[in-house]
Write a structure and sequence with these properties.
Helix content is 49%, strand content 14%. By secondary structure, the protein is an alpha/beta fold. Helix 10 links the parallel strand 7 and strand 8. It folds into two domains: 78 residues, Arc Repressor Mutant, subunit A (Orthogonal Bundle), CATH 1.10.10.10; 112 residues, Rhodanese-like domain (Oxidized Rhodanese, domain 1, 3-Layer(aba) Sandwich).
């Protein structure tokens, strides 16, 4: 029946109706994670994260694999991550509050210059910019933009002297609604550095079919 189809569609809507489930899906689109890692990333209790994951697993939005005694969760497919991106794009297009939150996080309440994928590739190939990945290290190792250095936000200030004061830096994270890159740009600009952020993030880079490096080495474009 036609009504039954919409009932099934509404199941997905109900699942992602909780903000922390959207956050969990965004993280799982970067790399698979065990429950304790997800709890640390979201600031939730282990039992709360487990409950959210079970609901999403029943809706076939996440999958698991076992490694010894540990269970790792991941997004159930590329279409799940495409859905998360589409939701983000819709929010940016229709909700002015989203851009307002991003502006408030960035230096002086003004949006930092955003760099397109094409411009980023050109700058890296010319040697005009240093690219930094401010996501957690496990997400970097699961896949990063070739040439990017891993500088998780929590360690950024302690590592800035290694970059140098007169270098142009482009930061990126999980996508246009991820707050890690705007926070990183704000930190660097307070230090007087020339910093911008990539207008999108790692999921969009993957979906565009661009090269992805894995492991701990930066690699090259």
């Amino acid at each position: 029946m036609r009504a039954d189809i919409y009932e099934q569609l509404a199941r997905i809507g109900k699942i992602v109706g909780h903000p922390k489930r959207i956050e969990l899906l965004e993280i799982l689109c970067q790399s698979e994670r065990p429950v304790d890692s997800l709890a640390a990333a979201t600031g939730l209790q282990l039992t709360t994260v487990s409950a959210h994951l079970q609901v999403m697993r029943q809706a076939r939005l996440v999958e698991t694999r076992r490694e010894g005694t540990r269970i790792y969760y991941r997004a159930a497919g590329a279409e799940v991550c495409q859905f998360v991106k589409a939701l983000s794009d819709l929010a940016r297009a229709r909700l002015a509050e989203v851009d307002q939150i991003l502006r408030e996080i960035e230096t002086g309440g003004h949006s930092a210059e955003q760099v397109s994928r094409e411009e980023l590739i050109a700058r890296v190939r010319r040697g005009d910019a240093v690219v930094i990945d401010v996501r957690p290290s496990e997400e970097y190792q699961a896949g990063h933009i070739p040439g990017a250095l891993s500088l998780p936000l929590e360690h950024l200030e302690a590592k800035l002297d290694e970059i140098g004061p007169n270098v142009e830096v482009v930061a990126y994270c999980r996508g246009p609604l991820c707050l890690l890159a705007p926070q990183a740009v704000a930190i660097m600009r307070r230090r007087g550095m020339n910093a911008q952020r990539l207008e999108e993030g790692m999921p969009e880079w993957r979906q565009a079919g661009l090269p992805v490096a894995v492991g701990t080495e930066p690699g090259s474009i």
